[in-house]
Amino acid sequence: MTNSLTSRIVSAAALGALLLGASTQRTGAWSDVNHREYLTFSGPVAIPGAVLPAGTYIFEMPTSSFSNSVVSIRSGDGRKVFLTQFTRIVDRPHAQAPHVSFHEAARGVPPPVDTWYPSGRDNGRQLIY
Fold this sequence. Notes:
The protein is α+β, with helices and mostly antiparallel strands. The protein has two domains: 1-31; 32-126. Helix content is 19%, strand content 39%. The strands form three sheets. It has a four-stranded antiparallel β-sheet with strand order 1-4-5-6, with no helix packed on it. A four-stranded antiparallel β-sheet has the order 7-10-9-8, with no helix packed on it. A hairpin with a 6-residue loop joins strand 9 (113-116) and strand 10. The radius of gyration is 19 Å and the shape is globular. It starts with a helix and ends with a strand.
């Protein structure tokens, strides 16, 4: 190969990587998601480091090649990340478990999310406080 052709190939690859990175940063979404669910809460709920007001949120995991214990929680439109952290993988207690379980909370305090049970999975992702 000539130096000119090699430099064009390298430039094209760098431009492709730059454009891919820019599109991922713009949306704030992972480009390779293993599981994503939109969950709606009728009242405020707590997660480590934040209280989420009533509304719809995206709960997702990257592919297992990255780590199947990482969970991200984002706003319903995907623009704001509220949490990205490692979680404990726990068994689903029974087939009809709700999508989310909560810790107990005092009256008037938003209940903390304990575990997210993704649809179609035999296990859940327990948040670490």
